[in-house]
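User: Hello! I'm new to structural biology and keep hearing that structure can be predicted from sequence alone. Could you demonstrate with VIR protein? Please show me the input and the output so I can see what each looks like.

Assistant: Of course. The first part below is the input, the amino acid sequence of VIR protein. The second part is the output, the predicted structure written as tokens.
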Amino acid sequence: MTQTQVDYDFFSEMEYYLVLEDELEGKKGREEQDSAFCGGLKQNSDNIKQLISICKNFVKLFNIAKTQYKFNPSLDQSKYHKFLNYWLNHNLSVISDYTDVKRDFFEYIITNKNKFDPKYELKGKIKDIDLKYINNTKKIYDLYKHYLDLKSEREIKRDTFLAEFKKKYDNVLEKCFSGGEYTFCKALEDFKKFYENNKSNNIKCSNMCPPLPQLVISKMSSDELSQIAKIGIRIIRGISTSSLNGLSIMKNGQHSNLRDLISLQYNLRMEKEDDEKYCVMMKILHEFFQYCSENISNSRLLSFIEEFIVEYYKKKESTYEIIFTDCADNSSKSYCKLYANCSREFKKEITLIKEGPEKYINNKKEYFKELDSDDSLIARARAIFRDSAAMAKNSPTVMSTLVSIILLVFFLYKKIPFFYPERRMQDVNNDNTRNMNAKSKRGKIRFAYQPS
């Protein structure tokens, strides 16, 4: 009987559900005739009184809901029923012995539905929801409620509202990408649309409601969330070192802002102010340059660079242009100080990325192309020597490769002092002074050995 999937679309009528709950609160202590059957609950539980109370309140809530959607035909009755089912499951889930009593409780409600639902409006609508989905739905419920309560709150400080709003939004965002459930992420996307469309109707929102960050999600064939940060996720999780192709793993404590961005599939968290958002974005870009610098000798890095630029930077390019313009005159703003630090350490990278993401990627492609060609001689020789059977048929290639390597080593030997530091002639002359007037003994000539 447990419901393994939940449709979160009923939150579009959330304003009306809050009215339902307010009316229910006003009817506390009142007995209703059609809820009398709740007193017959027989449960071997220390929480029997609480179970009876939940049953009675559910009947009251259903009666209030019927009145509400009966006189407002524009309201979606089926969505009310989904909310009622969530309400019942959530209130049961907070009971300590919930797992032991829920089955019998639901059977009792369904068996007696004719006593409070003679028209069978709730037929097939009351279901036992898995605890995972109850908790997920509660997160979305809290987000809607916090935003909608702004209308009814007489006095609320902006910082207090935004701090709690950010906490609840980021909580849903994290769960979206850690749970991998597309319908849950879609519910967050629906909230974002609801929020943006309703801000103009809320007078307090004029200075209390910042824009929410862009949310990018995609769906696979099932309800599973499609992974956008395919390479990035491997880098931060390091599940299989062979799949990293020699790239270093971003460990906890390293490149924390970049790691967080990747874990959220290149989606940004909510920030209370634009300045805070710009600071986070500059930290992300700086950490990206740092990671690339650490792995610059590995041509496999190119795939990660392309993923980061295409899935993140290109979508935020206009915002980065605002940052670059603001900070051109050495602004004292906090994000401009971060920009200045990044520019000092990675002047070439900043200059290049300002010229456009496509040019940045093409530059890296050329760099790694040259890097691969520089490694080809030694790599080819190594591959040939590994296969002794290939030596005979590849002898001309072996000889030409060896000659090339010898010439290369000879050239480097002449140009670069690999083994010993260069010595000045004056030092050599000074070392030989004591041997200038050396007399030979027994007709032998002695030469002083001077390592150079």
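User: So the tokens describe the shape?

Assistant: Right, they're a compact way of writing down the 3D structure. Reading them back into a model, for example: The two ends are 87 Å apart (CA to CA).
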